[in-house]
Amino acid sequence: METVVSGIRSTGNLHLGNYFGAVTNFLKMQRENNCFFFIADYHALTTHPKPDDLHGNIRQVLAEYLACGIDPDTATVFIQSDVPEVTELYLLLNMNAYVGELQRTASFKEKVRKQPDNVNAGLLTYPVLMAADIIIHRANKVPVGKDQEQHLEMTRRFARRFNTMYGVEYFPEPDAYNFGKQLLKIPGLDGTGKMGKSEGNGVFLADTPAEIRKKVMRAVSDEGPKTPNEKPSEPVQNLFTIMSAVSDPSTVKFFTDKHAACEIRYGDMKKQLAEDIIKVTEPIRERINEILADKKYMAKVVAEGAEKARASAAKTVREVREIIGYKPF
Ligand code: TRP
To answer: Among 16, 116, 286, 313, which one is least packed by beta carbons within 10 Å?
Structure first.
């Protein structure tokens, strides 16, 4: 069995794009691999969240992933900051991470541009912490999106550098596990581009049916097809794409045919789309609320996850210390 590690940032709520993109793949992976899924709440500190927000966000994200079906009895589900071993490995790896290469990282350069008032050292060493997260469980596969590929390349480099430096074959070099074409890209409701957390174009799993109806009815469309069999415009195609993820194929065909015949009424299509989205999200939303209300359950999941993650992490740190040359007196 291969070991899979993936970190989830504790910012923002999950939306349909996350659900049909990343989460459904986590669900598949957890059955076939030794999976570690964690909330990256040390990483969250780079943007200086307020203490109350930090905890609330962690709870929310954890509840959402559990509600989607991440199974803490199958995968190891934990909170990063419950595993202090990761900070020790991070320190050790920092000794072999060079300032130059960290400064050249695309995500760091972007942060420098976007938040010039808060260019902290945690941002600079973000990829080292991420590498520690991954190799502390000696993972082989890391399911991440394109935006994380450079970080993963650095993880491989840090792992290789450690092995070379000490003449060992200790850390595997993990591969990005990119679901490629299997990944469904869900567009936003604003006519163009992907659904995002902060673009204001998303439907969140935690949205109420009323909120979903309102958002979908307001989605950008167009003035309607002028000639038979016309290719749908981008905003309308986006609605069809979302529909193909949540609705019956017969429903999609019904509206596709109506569009081709220039008889489509977008109001009807949106009404149907909203109801079909709600069919997917409503059971999840109810489950999110149940989980959030069940403090005992959440505490148990977190405690058990921490214990499993720490056992795996502590073993690695013990072995790494030995390799580096720390010896008992
Ligand atoms: N950097 C990742 C992101 O922004 C989150 C993350 C932290 C992560 N540690 C990780 C992802 C380890 C995969 C493995 O999405």
So the answer is: 116
